[in-house]
Amino acid sequence: MHPLERILAERIAVIDGAMGTTIRTYGMKEADIRGERFRDSKKDLLNNGDLFTLTQPAMITDIHRRFLDAGADILETNTFGATSISQSEFFVDDPREHGGRKNPEFYQKVIEDKFLRELAWEINEQSARQCRALADRYSNETGRQRFVAGAIGPLTVSLSNSPDADDPGFRVVTFDQVKTAYAEEVRAFLAGGVDTILVETIFDSLNAKAALVAVQEVFAETGKQLPIMISAAVGRGGETMISAQTVEAMWNAVEHVHPLSVGLNCSLGPDLMHPFLQELSEKAAAAISCYPNAGLPNPLSATGFDCGPEDMGRHLGRFAEEGLINIAGGCCGNTPDHIAAIAKAVAGVTPRAIPTGGAA
């Protein structure tokens, strides 16, 4: 039994909060993310938060540290967009600006691009190493084991839908291209020493399927097997936003990989997420995770979202008391203060009983 699996059976574990939200509190500017290395980049980079791992490692390490101080058991790597495909948005000219379009030929060049492949590898490996060093230090100092989850984001392209209303069969990218980009990310995670692979914020279930195939192929190739965590983002109707799978359908689509956990994150605030979390908790034979946004977006609030720390603590505490979850945390809008409130709210609450035949 993996140590994290044992913990999930004994108590509710806490996963960290929003890297992007917390980065914004540091007041970083375009020059800060560029540094000397990317000084001459042609496109704006400030929204490429993963790049801060390389150009502002002290800040990123400080954010991870603050989440650990807040009570996080699981640190996510700062790699939400750290594939060659996602990084191409910041470093490759968009053919649509010159009368062309993105298509499989365009993305084949992207996944074969040496600069993009090496950049993606470096971000993933370095982020994993940063988290690994902190998690080990806190584990040794406190006697409470902390874990690193290699975070795989949803990509900026869809395998399920066509962007062209006049050509519904068209796809900008192929399954194998997406799988290749994800496989490179997983290899870098293993080199950096993560404890688990987290396929998260699933808008498009077919993208997630490509990620899971990539994970399994890399495990077979390397002979190294880690627990897999899966988390979907659903809309107000309870379906994944692009592929429109219900939570039950999503579980049926991923059950074969025997995930350590399956859950919901991002998209909705905790109140709107509650009925879909209930349904998933009833259906899934795995640990259940929940890390919602801090309510709905609100540009007038300090974090850009409605819920403060006490609100998130109250909601996640209710989920815990109802026996719905094994992992609690926060996505967009959740700062270390939010995670501290959540950790306090779920402390000592009995976790959801994981059904027999769950995580492998």
Description:
The protein is α/β, with parallel strands linked by helices. It has one domain (3-346): Homocysteine-binding-like domain (TIM Barrel, Alpha-Beta Barrel), CATH 3.20.20.330. The protein has helices spanning 3-10, 19-24, 30-34, 52-55, 57-69, 84-91, 104-112, 114-142, 175-192, 205-222, 247-254, 270-283, 309-321, 336-346; strands at residues 13-14, 74-76, 147-152, 196-202, 228-232, 261-266, 287-292, 327-328. The chain has an eight-stranded parallel beta sheet. α10 (205-222) links the parallel β4 (196-202) and β5.
Structural class: alpha/beta
The CATH architecture category equals: Alpha-Beta Barrel
How do the helices and strands follow one another from N- to C-terminus?
HEHHHHEHHHEHEHEHEHEHEH
CATH superfamily: Homocysteine-binding-like domain
Strand arrangement within the widest β-sheet reads 1-8-7-6-5-4-3-2
| Tally of alpha and pi helices | 14
Ranges where pLDDT stays below 50 over 5 or more residues in a row are none
* Extended strand count: 8
- What is the average of the pLDDT values? 96
Structural topology:
Layout (H helix, E strand, L loop, with lengths): L2 H8 L2 E2 L4 H6 L5 H5 L17 H4 L1 H13 L4 E3 L7 H8 L12 H9 L1 H29 L4 E6 L22 H18 L3 E7 L2 H18 L5 E5 L14 H8 L6 E6 L3 H14 L3 E6 L16 H13 L5 E2 L7 H11 L14
Parallel strand pairs: 1-8, 2-3, 3-4, 4-5, 5-6, 6-7, 7-8
